[in-house]
Design a protein that fits this description.
6-stranded antiparallel beta sheet, globular, alpha+beta, 6 strands
Length: about 190
């Protein structure tokens, strides 16, 4: 749970040096400071990704990533979280890879850095979103539609270079079936 993180220790370690902080449940928080400038950036890594999806639930990790940006226990009104994030200069983003989910703790400016004094509050906001999403029915439907659109955007177009590169990738990695697991899910699992 979010209470597993000792924010005072995290803050002390960030002030002293860049750090990597491991939670008991396997979540890793990485923070790095820019010496003398009062700036920082970081990342929250969940050690689970699309390779962890069960065959009947392909795309579930990607879906959970999307739901982290909807209502949560501390922010049932998602717009209040977004407003607070904007006041902190926080860029809300995430990605799901084969083995991890990543929630960057970075600024919404060209340098991507966040003021160091805003780092812990940014961690709190993101950890609440990750650990305590409310999964409201209308938000589930909204994210299902978004993921369906993303899936369609990444479908190879017949005769395109992307289709050709996909064929080459399948030939090169034919012995590794995990490479072809659709991280965004399939039409059946997204529906």
């Amino acid at each position: 749970a979010i209470t597993m993180l000792d924010f005072e220790k995290l803050e002390r370690e960030i002030r002293e040096r860049g750090m990597v902080y491991h939670l008991d449940n396997g979540v890793t928080i990485f923070g790095e400071r820019v010496l003398g400038l009062g700036l920082t950036l970081g990342n929250i890594f969940l050690h689970a990704g699309s390779f962890d999806d069960a065959d009947e639930d392909l795309g579930i990790m990607h879906f959970l990533e999307h739901m982290a940006f909807e209502s949560s226990s501390a922010f049932p009104d998602v717009y209040k979280r977004q407003l607070l994030g904007m006041q902190l200069g926080l860029d809300f983003n995430a990605s799901t890879g084969h083995n991890t989910m990543s929630f960057p703790i970075r600024g919404s400016n060209p340098s991507s850095f966040l003021l160091r004094e805003n780092f812990l509050e940014a961690c709190r906001i993101l950890l609440d979103a990750v650990y305590h999403p409310l999964h409201l029915p209308d938000q589930i439907e909204k994210q299902r539609r978004i993921i369906q659109a993303e899936r369609m955007e990444h479908e190879p177009v017949k005769g395109s270079l992307y289709e050709d590169s996909e064929k080459i990738r399948r030939m090169l990695y034919a012995a590794n079936p995990l490479v072809f697991r659709p991280g965004r899910g399939t039409e059946d699992t997204v529906d």
